Amino acid sequence: MELRLSLAPADLNRFRRQSVLRAYLQGRPRNRVERGLIGDGEDARPYRLNRSTYPLAGGTWTAELIVSHGELGETPFCFADIRLLTGPGDPLCALFEAMAQAVPFAVSRLDLPLLLPGRLPVSIKGKPPPLDAGMSAAEAFGQIAASAFAISTAAPDQVPVVMSRTK
Predict the structure, then answer these.
(1) Buried b vs exposed e over 52-81: b needs ≥16 C-beta within 10 Å?
(2) Do 22 and 77 fall within a single domain?
(3) SS3 115
(4) pLDDT tens for residues 2-25?
(5) Which of 32, 72, 87, 159 is 20 to 30 Å from the Cα of 120, by its Cα?
(6) Closest of 96, 104, 29, 36 to residue 61, by C-alpha
C-alpha cells in the first residue's frame, strides 16, 4: 500500500510532531535536498525539494514516511508519501485516521510537474462509497479505494476526490 498525502505547507511542523506519529518512528530520518528546473523553455521554473525519509514500525508492520516540501518558483508545496513495507494495512489506516484528527491532509496525486501553470488536473467529486459503522478499517478503506478507482477509470484526466467519514 502506498498513499500520497497533500497538506498545507504551514501545517508541516504540526504534521511531523504529532505524538501519534512519533510513537512509531524508528530512528532518525534520512534527509536530502534537490534543486533543479521543471518544464521546458519559457515554462521552466526552478524548484527546491527537501525530502526526509522516516522509518516507521508497529507491532506487526513496517512502513516509511517520506515528507517532501519546498518551492516551485515562488509557490510552496508539501506532501507526504507513506509506504507500507511489511504487514497488514489495518494499523496503518488507523494511524492515518488518528493523524487526520490533529492535522488536516488529503489523499493526493500531487506531483511536481503538475504544479506548473495549466497542468493541474480537474478535481471531480464521485458518489460516496457505501460505508457503515460496523466495517473494519480495512473494509472501509477498500470501499473508499474502489470508489476512487471507479471514478479514475471513468475520467482518467481528472483527479478523484473521495472523502468519507463514518461514526
Answers:
(1) bebbbbbeebbbbbbbbbbbbeeeebbbbb
(2) yes
(3) helix
(4) 888 888 888 888 888 888 888 899
(5) 32
(6) 96
Model pTM?
Answer: 0.64
54 and 132 co-located in one domain: no
Q: How far apart are CA 80 and CA 5, in angstroms?
A: 5
Element (H, E) at 134: none
C-alpha cell at 63: 512502513
Grid cell in block for residue 101:
484528527
Secondary structure (3-state) at 50: strand
Same domain, 114 and 131: no
Q: Into how many domains does the chain fold? A: 2
- % of the chain surpassing 70 pLDDT: 76
| Range of lowest pLDDT (11-15, 29-33, 74-78, 109-113) | 109-113
Which cell is 115 given? 504544479
